Amino acid sequence: MKIGELSRRTGVSTRLLRYYEEQGLISPARTTNTYRTYDDRDVARVEQVVGLVRAGVPTRLARVLLDLEDTRADGLAASCTRQVAQMLAEELTGLDERIACLTRSRRTLCEYLQRTEHATAVLEGAHAPALSSAPPH
Amino acid sequence: MKIGELSRRTGVSTRLLRYYEEQGLISPARTTNTYRTYDDRDVARVEQVVGLVRAGVPTRLARVLLDLEDTRADGLAASCTRQVAQMLAEELTGLDERIACLTRSRRTLCEYLQRTEHATAVLEGAHAPALSSAPPH
DNA sequence: CTTGACCTTCACACTGATGTCAAAGTCTAG
DNA sequence: CTAGACTTTGACATCAGTGTGAAGGTCAAG
């Protein structure tokens, strides 16, 4: 598919799709040697990128994480220098802190909404499952 | 305490502390009517702010969340307009998405590190507990 | 071949979060 | 009182993530 369709499917502007490519997050092929071409895997990849970016993960780290998933998907051996492993371990604790902080705020917000008279009205339908004390997934 | 000490305690630059004040996230008193004065609660508040901001929560939303916690701490009644409740509910799903995405990336990164020959070396000590499949808290 | 829809690159611009620097006021120790 | 450390405001700079628009190339339908 071309960039316009990918944009429609993911809700990400074409501008941003080109930006992500510039940052090395996606690497579409070129058909006519001028038009970018994407496949279904790119759709998933883009969705994950926007998720990470909106969660405050800088594009540099996002790239590393995506590369990691690619490596695993390819069944390649996990090997890297001690230095890199150390850096990734630090990123892991960074992720943990982010998750912990978000979870705390989520709980606060969630509890507040439940004590609100509009709770049922506002949290009906798709939002309802999100009310459990633990975050989904 | 004055801004310098708060900066030292929290690791947040004085510049950023003033910025957070400008954004309505902290409201220090003024002693000599020129110097900002902070108390211990501000330390906790600042730490929470940096956590939220680093997790991709915009300062505007962070302010809402902190106000919510203040309200709860004051034992005030939970009441707001339907509109506001609706908006907060949307923010809740936004938080859920952020948490889900971070959790997924965390798992990927974590699994990768465990398959690395440097796993034990790099994840020893304080980092070890973070290796469980579920994020902390 | 022309038209319209879509694509390309390039560039300017804005917001949010930060850093840095300058000019000037305040406070405390000596 | 003076020197040094700290503070204040304000301006300019940077980076990431975006929007927007210009100028022009590609392609498919009529």
Account of the 3D structure:
Chains A, B: This is MerR family transcriptional regulator. Chains A, B: InterPro entries: DNA-bd_dom_put_sf, MerR-type_HTH_dom, MerR_fam. Chains A, B: Residues 1-68 form the HTH merR-type domain. Chains A, B: Pfam families: MerR_1 (PF13411). Chains A, B: Keywords: DNA-binding, Repressor, Transcription, Transcription regulation. The structure is a homodimer of 137-residue chains. With 137 residues, the first copy, chain A, is an all-alpha fold. The first copy, chain A, folds into 2 domains: 1-79, Orthogonal Bundle (Multidrug-efflux Transporter Regulator, Chain: A, Domain 2); 90-137, no CATH class. The first copy, chain A, is built from 6 helices and 2 strands. The first copy, chain A, has helices spanning 3-10, 14-22, 40-54, 59-73, 82-114, 119-123, and strands at 29-30, 36-37. Chain A has a two-stranded antiparallel sheet. The radius of gyration of chain A is 19 Å and the shape is flat. Chain A starts with a helix and ends in a 14-residue tail after the last helix. Mean pLDDT of chain A is 80; it is low at 126-137. Chain A binds a DNA duplex (30 and 30 nucleotides) through helix 2.
